[in-house]
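My current task is to audit a protein record that another person submitted. I need someone to confirm that the token line plausibly describes how this chain folds. Take the sequence as given and treat only the tokens as open to question. This is what I was given:
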Amino acid sequence: QVRLVESGGGAVKPGGSLTLSCEASGFLFGIRNMRWHRQAPGKERELVADISSGGHTYYRDSVKGRFIISRDNSKNMLYLYMNNLKLEDTAVYYCNILGVDYWGQGIQVTVSS
């Protein structure tokens, strides 16, 4: 069955960096668009970034130039490199398969001074 396991979160100060990883299994990872979403306290879950099977990327405006989504199809791994983190990036981050209503446990990212 589908399994997505996020890791790499934590607490950083504004301007800091974190790298999130997502280990995927139970489906043909290499042919699926993969996404990172996040949900901040009291807010709706929102799409952060998307990457196609061929490596084409999309970012929400608020993270453009700061976040990079990438994938390693040989390892079934999805990554999110987050730089120059801001207070408003604080959220639980989830990796997700485009079009599939499956969510892992998520990983907490806290940006605080």
